[in-house]
Amino acid sequence: MTIKSLAIITACVATMMAASSCTKDLNRLPYVQETSETVYKDPVKIKGVLAKLYGSLCLSGQHYEDNSLSDIVTDNTGTNVFLRNYWSLQELTTDEAVIGWNDGDLLSFHNLNFTPDGKYVKVMYDRIFFGVAACNEFLRQTTDDKTSSFPADVTANIKEYRYEARFLRAFYYWIAIDLYGKVPFVTEADPVGAFQPKQISRADLFTYLETELKDLETLLPEPRTNEYGRVDKGAAWALLAKLYLNAKVYTGTEKNAETITYCNKLINTTAYQLAADYSRLFKTDNNLTTEIIFPILADGVTSQSYGNTSYIVLGSIGGTMNPADYGMSTAWGGMRTTKNIVDLFPDPFGNTDKRAMFYTSGQNLDISDLSSFNDGYAVPKFKNISSTGQPGSDPTRRFTDTDFPMFRLGDVYLMYAEAVLRGGSGGTLAEALNYVNLIRRRAYGNTNGDISASELTLDFILAERGRELYWEAKRRTDLVRFGKLTSGSYVWPFKGGVAAGTGVQEKYNVFPIPNTDRIANPNLVQNDGY
């Protein structure tokens, strides 16, 4: 059985915990229809729990719309999914996306006026610590002592699963350090039951992540040798590169040389190559490329979810767009982009730079009404069709097969170039220029988009990251790193809740700790300014 086919989790690993307990009790034993004693005595079920850890990135729980089977209870089951919330917090807060729905605190993201009482500020936070708690419990239940009765080959497999669980926990904590800064910290060594964890500083969490990931890079399988969708050394290298690139934000100290070191590990292996066709990275058969380092999986039949790429695809269709052109049967009419992103390209139709994937018919470039889908160009970058034009596997065309490229090589090339420009040792300007031009040659189909060394600046890198990585949940982190998310020196439509855009308080560079968690845990101190 594959991780992808196991993403619909069997009854033996049913709903693991409710959101109401995530904040007070990060280590509560999972609620299961079978007890831990029975689940963890069966190696097949142990792999099922591992699948649950991965499935938590893209699924609501046991069912896509039955709230009683959700990992985290919300008023709409589809809104509790990790990827959906991460994408929203990373994109809707920036120049890359606006949304027309007045649901909870969604509009507060683009307005940059979110609060500790915000609905989705809390859902994202709960999702992170649900994932941490699930990984911790898996690690508690799969120690050498508890699996000693299994045959040697089975215990060897479980040991590999443990490395993956540790990576996924580190991944969740990386999301936490980036979005929320100083957060509660728990590992499998902490007690189970009613427990109020201590808060860890951003700098100390950085050190933990660095240490944990450097250990895991020696333990995980070689790049692209694990089952598709499961992590390997490449994922650890990519996460380390991202951690180091943002080190100044997290700790006050730059780590650009370290960024280059880990980018080089990814670039120098033959396991990863740029996909020949950029658009294929966002179609149903993107799993056949060798560019994606760590995907968040989707399958329209075996892992139905309104919170994986189904959310991105459905939310991007509206106006005069025909859902069938994108492999779907319906449209949600939600997200569009601002003219700032459109203006990064020579034209919005992809005639020059093929990465420009905007739908303009019936759409206004300028946004005067956030609630109107027709204001702002639509962005059908992600599609539920294959590179040969075939729709996804779900016969109802409601759910996608398109995996989300959480880490990919194109991003690594740009991280390398940025780290060189920021003064990191171990790389060269010539190599940085080459990597940027390789990306642009794919985009242009020729050398017409090549730039010179004098044109390769940090401002260019931020713009190029916008061109290459828009709608891939990178933009908020990028704008924070470049000092532009809250600054009045760079604005976009409705930034700060003003039609022309305005600067906002620096506190919005990080999200607040939800008030519900602070009430439940007096150890937690709110982020400055909230």
Summarize the structure.
This protein is mainly α and 530 residues long.
Describe the structure in your own words.
- Belongs to the SusD family.
- With 530 residues, the chain is mostly helical.
- It has a domain at 5-233 and 512-520: Serine Threonine Protein Phosphatase 5, Tetratricopeptide repeat (Alpha Horseshoe).
- The chain has 18 helices and six strands.
- It has helices at residues 19-22, 36-39, 43-55, 82-91, 106-111, 119-141, 152-179, 202-216, 233-245, 247-251, 256-268, 309-315, 339-342, 409-421, 429-444, 458-469, 475-481, 515-520, and strands spanning 98-99, 183-184, 199-200, 292-296, 335-336, 404-408.
- The strands form three sheets. Strands 1-5 form a two-stranded antiparallel sheet.
- Helix 8 packs antiparallel against helix 9.
- Mean pLDDT is 93; it is low at 5-32.
SSE layout:
Layout: H1 19-22, H2 36-39, H3 43-55, H4 82-91, E1 98-99, H5 106-111, H6 119-141, H7 152-179, E2 183-184, E3 199-200, H8 202-216, H9 233-245, H10 247-251, H11 256-268, E4 292-296, H12 309-315, E5 335-336, H13 339-342, E6 404-408, H14 409-421, H15 429-444, H16 458-469, H17 475-481, H18 515-520
Antiparallel strand pairs: 1-5, 2-3, 4-6
Helix pairs in contact: 3-7, 4-6, 6-7, 7-8, 8-9, 9-11, 11-14, 14-15, 14-16
